[in-house]
Structure prediction request, 345 residues.
Amino acid sequence: MSKKARKNALVLSGGGGRGAYHVGVLKFLEEHEWYPHIVAGTSIGAVNGAAIASGHNANSLWALWRRLQTDDVQKAGLGALTGNYLLDTAPLRKTLQEKGWVNFERLNSDEAAVHLRVTATEIGSGQLHIFGNSADVYPSKMQQEPIGLDHIIASCSIPIVYPATQLNDNLYWDGATVANTPLGPAIDAGAEEIVVVMMTPWETAEERKLEKPSNILQAASTMLEWALLASFQSDLKMFHRINELVRLQVENGRLRAQNALLLSQIRGEELDLKDEDGNGIPDIFENKFHELPDPIIVAPKEAIPVERILRYTQEGHETLYRMGYEDAKRAWRAAGKEVEGEGNP
Prediction:
């Protein structure tokens, strides 16, 4: 893992059995020579992120997803009798350990393929905790520590559906309970160009309509779905506000430079106004303000059935993989980038 390579960040949302959608997006990005240096993931995004950090690419990760069945992820749990949870994630633990998904030794070494960030929600405080395998570029509350199986399972522990996970003397639920698309952690890690992958339509209310839940599992899934969307909308609003503040600071720097130039001319002085980075602000007045381009947001045009969150089938994976690929193509084109085989947009 290069300490300098921090440009591209891939933000992977939660969504359970819909995680094959991520892989379709990754396949499109790789075909267009866009490779992540940072991966920030929540829930199934943490699983896929850990796999990428272990060295998997779109092809090898897709090979794993094609074989993944519901029984590899969950089973009926005793929690349904005690009222704590409905399904047990013991099969997911076994799958990640024994079927080649994650190499924790590599993930936590200098050989890690990406800077990884995973999120989980501490039950006692409701605070979102961010765990990473490398230091952040900017000051943050990220906890740098060796990422283990419990970190990934904690990020996947959907309330009501799955049991909470013990980690560092605390109990944790799914990171999506508070923040489904960890945009902030990607920025703190040093991202400059960000691709966000969601599995919920987010642009208009008409696109987001879901069917009325008919059982408790669908009700829990629908609740999670709206939590996922709300957290991302909040993160995106904050992103735009910070960029606006940066723009104001940049303009302030330019005005200061102009005033200094006028004063120097009045006094007959020479002023060093070198602008080595070419951003219009002389270096002596610059505090290295950095405005980020808007993230490229990949999301489905129509709502994916919520039952896909808890169902893992080959047919479903193939549908979602193709959907992710096509939605990535659409988002790439909308961002003004060239799609291979189509010429200039």
User: Anything to note?
Assistant: The longest strand covers residues 115-122.
